[in-house]
Design brief:
Subcellular location: Membrane
Low-confidence stretches: 1-80, 82-171, 1098-1176, 1185-1200
Number of helices: 8
Family: Belongs to the VPS10-related sortilin family. SORCS subfamily.
Distance between the termini: 43 Å
Main location: membrane
Helix content: under 10%
Shape: globular
Protein name: Sortilin related VPS10 domain containing receptor 3b
Pfam families: PKD, Sortilin-Vps10, Sortilin_C
């Protein structure tokens, strides 16, 4: 599942519907704030209580759109705001500076309400523009939660509106100028939507509504407008006709003077349009019900509208006229063109539903989206809810045979499959970020259940490497994924995340974009100045990383571009992250040191472009005080903002505004009107900042001055100076590149970071494979195992140590020739174009289509566009490709079924068999099929297959050598295949292998993994011994077992059987000795070494096949049975050794082999002790297997 980061574009917005499918929906993204799309989704009335953040006359919480009600608290002590009741007389020592606040007389009825809901990180965040009150009778926690505690002594200044002005204080002392306005007559309205129009505009619009939960509709509404920053409001109902009931308010992100109101569809379906910030409106009826809107990122009049019946409409005149674009559109899966990426600005990217789980990616012009003008850019179908268009990238997903593949298009180029490490085998994926032309993805690997791993891509988003494992995640109320991952604003490469270690969640930080991670140091003292003895790594600081989905709340962690290095967060000190004993912590030096600023949880906002901090206590009791700091949280002054205590439901301010105005929303009691308190905080400053008010600050990581490859110096206001910051002052004072080091580079695809910091090839990766660039040039860039971290500005010396090195392409014979259809299918309908794709070195290629037609290409490097061919008749065609050059040749074969799609099959076959001895081959179908199946068996270069209706076939190999066997399965128009190469020998020896238990923990139980591990074991065994005489095979299931096959010397004459047998015995004894001493080892991954052991010696045919077992052979057989008793129990109950074929005693039917897959249930049925066979029964069964009905005992158990 992909996700999208979203930023707030204005203060008017709605929650967007989320799902947990692959892909996500960025419902609001603002071009002015680093995003190019703004989607404003209308909430159906029946779901408003879930989707909308609300302001409630009964103290409603604004968390993740959950609407809850609090017990009614009448107006109380005007000084009771949960903060210490300090006074100016405190300076004389007459008042305890650490006085505890009085207990809340109306305690929170739900003890769990202290927990704030976690917000989405990798999926599109839920946005709110609705304040809501719900009927009395429901109870729940408050947005501003109670947090009891003490504060350190602070100087206090009180100034509240006219009260402050009349006190006679000097104007040099900081003060707040406040005014309160009540929306008279709307006390019954239980929802409100608020918007501050334009940058530095004085216009504020508020839409209040009475939503009837019984009727599921809005029955009353009022529109209020202020032209003086909220000092007074005027009711606008007469401007829009008093009988019109309004449901939603939208604002154009590129011209905020343009306002759109939607009437309630239960009354009438219409839009009301204003071009003068709501001073006047014009009404236009529409014939559909709008569920969501998407404004164009550059054209202010262009809008996309999604209707309740899954149709997409477009308007090029700001909603006056609408034209149907496409039907059957998936909710939230439509996107405007990106400026500079799409050729035409009116291009629309759409995901359209074809079937229940199938969709298509369609691109067309918004006003010309007829069938003839539509483009289908992805070859084939995609999964529903998978299309994501974000920045330079387009993501989608395709699931086949239960396994998902993920695709990306970079800069609108053709799609490429995203490449994760070979055995990552993702079950789920979410895109966390696409900033700086790089993809951060949270991936749930095959062996993870509740955690995800962080992967980082190259610039095109194709090749990913692991950054950190086991990130903490959870699911939101709508099933959306929540990932604990936070990007620190203002500093490149700095991220925070919470990781699960030994069932404990700890907070980690990186300064180099995920190359190294470290724990956070705890403060040296608490808020009272007491020493804290918290020593890394046993004790550290842990933070809650949830950001607010609601702009009227601050979230639990905050940072800002304009004040680099400052981070404020809720957290705790100890061995793990906790939900209790929370406090507020701040760093002003980019997390190198931390200070505790409050013992209770607060909402904290940045004021004055980050030059000041505003804090409000989390409380479910009324408040009348707030806290402001001008020195990065070292000193806090308390100010009154209301004469009477206010139940604070939200705080609104215009981002980056120069007017220094904020607005508090709330109610004095549950019976009062909506109260809007305008606060002008300009009085806390004495003047504008000058050059002498700033100081330099050097960014560093502990004692290391180089961060992201450079030494950076920032300008910051001197703490405590009461001057206003100017928006245009330069934050970065200077930067100087540093010499490159290994951690300025991330490991390239296929390489792992070792404990010494170096990148070395993973066990499954061969770095010596010639790159595809040799197909079109005389040289290529060969990776050194490193790739430079994007946005890192380090400088390499004269000799490039880490960057790729250019090497000449060496002449080589064709190898790795592949032949496939463009869709990857092995079947196609008759009469359609079949496109064949190939890949080889620059060479001469002959292609036989199998129907009598042959074509030849000279100097063909890569058939990127494919070779098209039309088959006129149904049947099975053997398509072959032969590649030749002066160095050699290679060939590839494709068996193409015309008229059939395909499924999946696994061919179980021994790796080595005896010549002229009948062998059973078994095809195991996954998943199981109840319909009749047809099996096609291909042996070597046979032109016709053997066809069976059963999944078994017997075959005799007549000559020694290597033979290729391919089985294809046809069912219901679907064809799938599997192939094996089998070595045929007269004599050979084999040993059964076992491995360290750690290998089972990393065994995904798939064929490719077994083949790669077998290759590594073979290489380890072949030291000093010819590798071509050794074969290693690993078998399905757990525990992991394998078999070593020792082949005779090919130069020995076939008639010298005795000498060959003796040579095999000597070699076998040598390997037995080496294996028993544990000398054969290999590294699976950093710090994971696997030892190979010999489990037992198998009975490979090293004597005349016609002879009878001798006495020692029978004793050896008894030893085999005795030693392998436990393994046989597993084999007996469907964990059988795969190369031994057993017939059931009663039914005489073959017991099918079970192939495990990712995501399969690992549970195993329990077996009673009485069901285990005796040792005598085991021996009799083993002898019966080997006899197989013959009159004499054979010498081989390698029979299928």
């Amino acid at each position: 599942m992909f996700g999208i980061w979203s930023l707030w574009c204005s203060l008017a917005f709605v929650f967007s519907h989320l799902d947990h499918k692959f892909g996500a929906r960025g419902e609001i993204s603002c071009p002015a704030l680093k995003r190019r799309h703004e989607r404003l989704q209308v909430m159906p009335p029946e779901t408003t209580g879930v989707k909308g953040s609300v302001v409630n006359n009964n103290r409603t919480e604004l968390l993740n759109g959950l609407t809850v009600e609090y017990p009614i608290v009448d107006d109380g002590d005007p000084n009771s705001d949960g903060a210490p009741q300090q006074d100016l007389a405190r300076e004389s020592g007459m008042e305890d500076p650490f006085a505890q606040i009085s207990a809340n007389p109306y305690p929170n009825p739900d003890p769990k309400s202290k927990r704030r809901k976690r917000t989405i990180r990798s999926v599109a965040r839920r946005h709110a523009e609705v304040f809501e009150r719900i009927p009395v009778g429901q109870a729940g926690p408050s947005l501003l939660e109670t947090a009891q505690g003490v504060y350190s002594s602070r100087a206090e200044y009180r100034r509240s509106g006219e009260e402050g002005k009349g006190s006679g204080q000097r104007q040099t002392e900081p003060y707040l100028d406040t005014s309160t306005f009540a929306l008279a007559g709307d006390s019954a309205h239980n929802q409100a939507m608020v918007h501050w129009s334009g940058h530095n505009s004085s216009v504020i619009l508020i839409l209040t509504k009475l939503y009837d939960f019984n009727l599921g509709a809005v029955t009353e509404s009022s529109l209020w407008r202020s032209v003086n920053y909220g000092s007074t409001y005027t009711k606008m109902n007469d401007k829009i006709r008093s009988r019109t009931v309004l449901s939603y308010l939208y604002v154009c992100p590129t011209n905020k003077r343009k306002i759109m109101l939607l009437s309630d569809p239960e009354m009438e379906s219409a839009v009301l349009i204003s071009s003068d910030e709501g001073a006047s409106f014009e009404k236009h009826p529409i014939n559909f019900y709008i569920q969501s809107l998407l404004f164009h990122p550059a054209q202010e009049n262009w809008i996309l509208a999604f209707s309740h019946d899954s149709k997409l409409y477009s308007s090029m005149d700001f909603g006056r006229k609408w034209l149907l674009v496409h039907d059957n559109v998936m909710p939230g899966r439509f996107y405007w063109a990106a400026v500079g990426l799409d050729k035409d600005q009116d291009v629309v990217h759409i995901e359209t539903r074809i079937a229940k789980s199938r969709a298509q990616y369609v691109r067309c012009r918004a006003q010309r989206c007829t069938e003839a003008n539509r483009q289908y850019l992805f070859p084939g179908y995609v999964d529903t809810n998978s299309l994501v268009v974000q920045d330079e990238y387009v993501f989608t997903q395709v699931t086949k045979s239960g396994r998902a593949s993920y695709y990306v298009s970079y800069m609108r180029e053709p799609f490429k499959q995203m490449q994760l490490p070979k055995y990552c085998l993702p079950k789920d994926m979410h895109i966390i970020s696409t900033d700086e032309k790089q993809v951060f993805a949270a991936v749930q690997e095959w062996n993870q259940n509740h955690t995800y791993s962080l992967y980082i891509s190259d610039s095109p988003g194709v090749y990913f490497t692991l950054s950190l494992e086991n990130l903490r995640t959870s699911r939101g109320p709508a099933g959306n994924l929540l990932v604990d991952f936070y990007k620190v604003e203002g500093i490149h490469g700095m991220y925070l995340t919470n990781k699960l270690i030994d069932n404990r969640v700890k907070t980690f930080i990186t300064y180099d974009k995920g190359q190294t991670w470290a724990l956070l140091p705890a403060p040296t003292t608490d808020v009272l100045g007491n020493n804290l003895h918290c020593v890394l790594p046993f004790c550290s600081l842990h933070l809650h990383l949830e950001m607010s989905e609601n702009p009227y709340t601050s979230g639990r962690i905050s940072s800002k571009d304009s004040v680099p290095g400052i981070v404020i967060a809720t957290g705790n000190i100890g061995t793990e992250l906790s939900s209790t004993n929370l406090g507020m912590f701040i760093t002003s030096d980019a997390a190198n040191t931390w200070r505790q600023i409050f013992e209770e949880e607060h909402s904290v906002w940045f004021l004055d472009n980050g030059g000041a901090l505003l804090a409000v206590l989390h409380s479910n009791t009324p408040l009348r005080h707030l806290w402001i700091s001008l020195d990065e949280g070292k000193k806090w002054t308390r100010h009154s903002f209301s004469l009477a205590p206010l139940y604070v439901d939200g705080v609104m301010m215009e981002p980056e505004a120069e007017n220094h105005i904020i607005t508090f929303f709330g109610h004095f009691s549950h019976r009062s009107e909506w109260q809007l308190i305008k606060i002008d905080y300009k009085g806390i400053f004495s003047r504008r900042c000058m050059d002498g008010d700033y100081q330099t600050w050097h960014l560093h990581n502990k004692a290391e001055p180089c961060v992201m490859g450079e030494k950076q110096v920032y300008m910051k206001r001197r703490p405590g100076n009461r001057c206003m910051l100017t928006q245009d002052y330069s934050r970065i004072y200077s930067s100087e590149p540093c010499p490159c080091r290994s951690y300025d580079f991330e490991c390239d695809y296929g390489f792992d970071r070792q404990s010494d910091g170096k990148c070395s090839p993973a066990f499954w990766f061969n770095p010596n494979t010639t790159t595809k660039s040799c197909s079109t040039s005389q040289s290529f860039l060969n990776s050194t195992g490193y790739r430079k971290v994007l946005s890192n500005n380090c400088k390499e010396g004269g000799r490039s140590v880490f960057s790729p090195r250019r090497q000449a392409c060496q002449p080589s014979p064709p190898r790795g020739l592949r032949l496939s259809t463009s869709q990857g299918e092995l079947a196609a309908p008759a009469g359609t174009n079949v496109t064949f794709l190939g890949d080889s070195q620059k060479t001469h290629i002959q292609l036989h289509f199998g129907d009598g037609i042959k074509i030849t290409y000279s100097n063909l490097s890569r058939t990127s566009d494919g070779i098209k061919h039309v088959y006129s008749a149904t049947g099975i065609y053997r398509v072959t490709a032969l590649a030749e050059n002066s160095q050699g040749s290679d060939s590839s074969t494709l068996f193409l079924h015309i008229t059939s799609p395909v499924e999946r099959v696994h061919l179980s076959a021994p790796m080595v068999v005896s010549r002229q001895r009948e062998v059973n081959l078994t095809a195991v179908v996954w998943p199981s099929h109840s319909r009749t199946l047809t099996f096609f068996w291909w042996f070597d270069n046979s032109s016709e297959p053997r066809i069976t209706l059963e999944g078994t076939v017997s075959h005799t190999f007549q000559s020694e050598g290597t033979s290729k066997v391919t089985v294809q399965l046809s069912s219901g128009g679907v064809v799938i295949q599997d192939s094996k190469r089998i070595t045929v020998k007269e004599l050979f020896k084999s040993l059964l292998l076992s491995f360290s238990p750690a290998l089972d923990d990393h065994n995904p139980d798939i064929g490719e993994w077994r083949a790669d591990v077998g290759r590594v074991v073979r290489r380890a065994l072949a030291s000093g011994f010819p590798a071509d005489r050794l074969l290693v095979s690993l078998y399905p299931g757990l525990p992991t077992v394998g078999e070593l096959f020792i082949l005779p010397d090919t130069h020995t004459q076939s008639e010298h059987k005795k000498s060959t047998q003796e040579a095999l015995e000597r070699v076998s004894d040598t390997f037995i000795n080496v294996l028993n001493q544990g000398l054969i080892q290999f590294e699976l991954k950093p710090e994971v070494r696997i030892i190979v052991y010999m489990t037992q010696q198998t009975l490979a045919p090293h004597v005349d096949p016609g002879s009878i077992h001798s006495g020692p052979a029978l004793l050896m057989l008894l030893s085999v049975v005795s030693v392998g008793l436990a393994a046989f129990f597993i084999y007996k109950f469907k964990r059988k050794i795969p190369w031994i074929h057993v017939q059931a005693e009663d039914s005489q039917e073959k017991d099918p082999e079970v192939i495990s897959t990712v995501g399969q249930n690992d549970s195993m049925s329990k077996v009673k002790l009485s069901e285990f066979p005796s040792q005598k029964d085991l021996l009799e069964k083993e002898l019966e297997i080997r006899s197989r009905g013959r009159s004499e005992l054979t010498n081989s158990v390698n029979i299928w």
